Amino acid sequence: MTDYPSITAQLDDPDAAREEGRRKMDWARQHMPILNALREDFEADQPFADQRIGMAMHVEAKTANLVELLADGGAEVAITGCNPLSTHDDVSAALDAHENITSYAKRGVDDDEYYAAIEAVIDIEPTITVDDGMDMVAAIHEDYPELIDSIIGGAEETTTGVHRLRAMDDDGALDYPVFAVNDTPMKRLFDNVHGTGESSLASIAMTTNLSWAGKNVVVAGYGDCGRGVAKKASGQNADVIVTEVEPRRALEAHMEGYDVMPMSEAAEIGDVFLTVTGNRDVVTAEHFEQMKDGVLLANAGHFDIEVDLDALSDMAVDQYEARDGVEAYEMDDGRRLNVLAEGRLVNLAAPIALGHPVEVMDQSFGIQAVCVRELVDNPDAYDAGVHDVPDDLDKEVAEIKLEAEGVDFDSLTDTQEEYMGSWQHGT
Ligand code: NAI
Question: Directed axis angle between helix 89-96 and helix 61-72, to 10°?
């Protein structure tokens, strides 16, 4: 047992925080038709009665609506953050006030507190885990393997978490089933592309009060997130340069009309650098050497290791806060390189960051919710390992959303269905 305190015990005025957090949650909830539709079913059916759900996610208003949905569906939930800077303490406090929820998430924790909060969540002995980045699954496997037998399964939100899980699975080290929520179309094609694109650019603009128009924006990584960032930056009249290591992705970016070049060339051209690779050491000392005065360096990949801040710090003769959320590193030749949000996910960790738009997260969390329901409904259907989200669940969420948007669409006729399922029809 840990004695790590919940957020309520850590705040000076938890009542005021709760009220503000609830206001934020209510606003988000108005724009989350998928979670609201599921809520009607879950409140009536109580599918999660007897389940204990341990979560490590970005604790802000949209996530809070997922957490509350699971709790209102009967689960006992414990949650903490999945990044030291992305928690909204007021939302965390509002969650902690729910009788079925304990929230340990707090913004600005150090490494020890971050992992102590994860241990506190594990103390509820979860039967289901919901992660963003896989820190919870890792902690359970490394430090509490005795709990694994009673865990039905889990769900993972982000690309980096799914990468880590697949690596663990390949090593035969993943001992319970986990749904790769990230990879399913209803998540990836909207959250990663539109969500990361819109919210990263919005956070950078609001944090710096600078324009995109006419800037050279270097996007490192042309995956789902990179595509979104590049498209939206281009839509705001920036000149986009893409760096890649995967030939097909590099070609795709080239055919979209972006300049593609190595980071060593982009370094001297860029005004803004935004990394979305999920990899490490993407912008390093050799690049800092070449950059222009005043550049912005931001990361939207999961971990804060894409921009080599240690090297930057070593190279700097001075370092100071240029604005809230902007740290300037001054080089000996007078150039200032400006790092946003300490190199952590800029759309979530910048002081005024709001994360993805609500509508996008309604989709991602709709998938999370139906995955948790699936684990409870079919606890023996999935072996240990990483699993794709079943297609019918993905479609279910899409259909709820289309109905809420008032969008009607066609369905196959019997003849078409027969034709599409047949190999005998030729010329
Ligand atoms: P992805 O795997 O689709 O794309 C990553 C791309 O980066 C790949 O095309 C890969 O070839 C490229 N890459 C890898 N190393 C590189 C290097 N050294 N230089 C240039 N390119 C390189 O992944 P996705 O879905 O785009 O996610 C990227 C990261 O963003 C992950 O860490 C993910 O967890 C995170 N993410 C962040 C979100 C946010 O809200 N900020 C939302 C969703 C994902």
Answer: 10
